[in-house]
Structure formats: C-alpha cells, structure tokens
Amino acid sequence: MKYAILSDLHSHYKNTKKVLNHIQQVAPNTEIIGLGDLFECKIGKKKAKMVRHAKLKDAAIIDDKFMSLLTFPSIIGNQEERIALVTGDQRFLQYKNALEIEHATLIHGHQIEWDKTFNPTFPHIETPLLFFGHSHEAAIYNNGKRQPVPYNIPLSVGHKRYQINVGPVVENKEWCLYDSQEMTVTFMQAQ
Ligand SMILES: [Mn+2]
After folding, report:
1. How far does the centroid of ligand 1 lie from the alpha carbon of residue 20, in Å?
2. Half-sphere exposure of 2 (CA within 13 A, CB side)
C-alpha cells in the first residue's frame, strides 16, 4: 500500500493545495495521512497559559476554503492542542496522539525530546519506521544517526530502523511517499 504523509500545514491554503495536487499527480489513489499542526494557532505558547474561552476566530486561522482540503485523517499536533486549550473547542482533540500503519508509527513530533540544537531523542517504538514532523525540517535518521535527505529517489528502507521527518507543508511544500510493499520512502517537494 502507498501512503502520502504530510505535516505542519499551519492553515496555509496555497501550499496545502499545491502539495495535494502534487500527490494527485505523482501518486494517485494514495492514502493521505496528516501528522498534525493542520491549523495555525494565533496565540503563542506563553500567552496560551493565561487564555481560556477565546473565540475561535481570535485563536486560530481557520476558513472554509482551507477546511475543504482536509479530507484525510490526521494525528494531533501541538497547534491543535493549544487551540483546544485556549478556546475549549473539543473538536481539535478529535485526533489521536499516534497512529500505527504497516511497519510504521506516526507521531507529530512534539512528543519527541528535542535538545537546544534541535537534535531529537526518539521514543522507543514497536515498528521499524517512525514518521514525524514538528521541527519544520525534513530529515532522516538510521538508528538515530542523521543522513542526508534524498529527494525524488525511492530510498530502500528494508526492515531497518529509520526515523523520518517528512518536512513542513507550510514553508517548503514537502511530503513523503511511503510504499509499504516495496518498503521505500521518497522525500517529495511540490513546486
Ligand atoms: Mn508545526
């Protein structure tokens, strides 16, 4: 089965549309899954500690045009958690913390421990592959060791342990194609 995995949309209509079009073009009939931060919370981390019962329009960037693109399942990101916190709107908590697909675990990445230089310490998981986002930087690690990101070339992952940061939709229009039959991962970028 083929999966198109995308993360960190941050309510960006144009780039999300471009990524979805690119997926449609190069990998039609692919199962699309989001890794969270679908929406942009307008209230910062610090301020959010003090804010409750905010109006949705004051707390998040959400419009019908962008909503109409969200036809695929997603897990939860820190933006959804914060929007739910400051507005009390439970709809933003409808997403799971993690999802397991064939040989792969999907998380947003805010559950990962990041040091000051944004080096992640990965949690122990059952599957060989871990897909995540959050830091807005595509990356691939084999057993925790970082390697250069190959774009547009299917990387054969076999059943080795790889941790894959799919990169952000919002700045870079990036996404990953995962083929669970061939066991390949391809980093993609829409133009
Ligand atoms: Mn994000």
Report:
1. 18
2. 12
Structural domain boundaries, residue 33: 2-189
Condensed to tens digits (0 to 9), the pLDDT of residues 173-185 reads 999 999 999 999 9
Q: Which residues pair with 186 in a beta bridge?
A: 177
How far, in Å, is the centroid of ligand 1 from the Cα of 110?
A: 9
Longest alpha-carbon distance in the chain? 49
Dump strand ranges (E) for 44-134: 60-61, 98-101, 104-107, 113-114, 120-121, 129-132
Is 30 in contact with 3 (CB distance < 8 Å)? yes
CA of 59 to the centre of ligand 1 (A): 16
For the stretch 37-69, pLDDT in tens is 999 999 999 999 999 999 999 999 999 999 999
Query: 39 C-alpha to center of ligand 1: Å?
Result: 9
Q: Please tell me whether the overall predicted TM-score, pTM, comes out greater than 0.90 for this model.
A: yes
42 SS3 class: coil
Number of structural domains the chain divides into: 1
End-to-end CA distance of the chain: 25
Joined together, the tokens standing for residue 11 give 């309510």
* CATH code (residue 22): 3.60.21.10
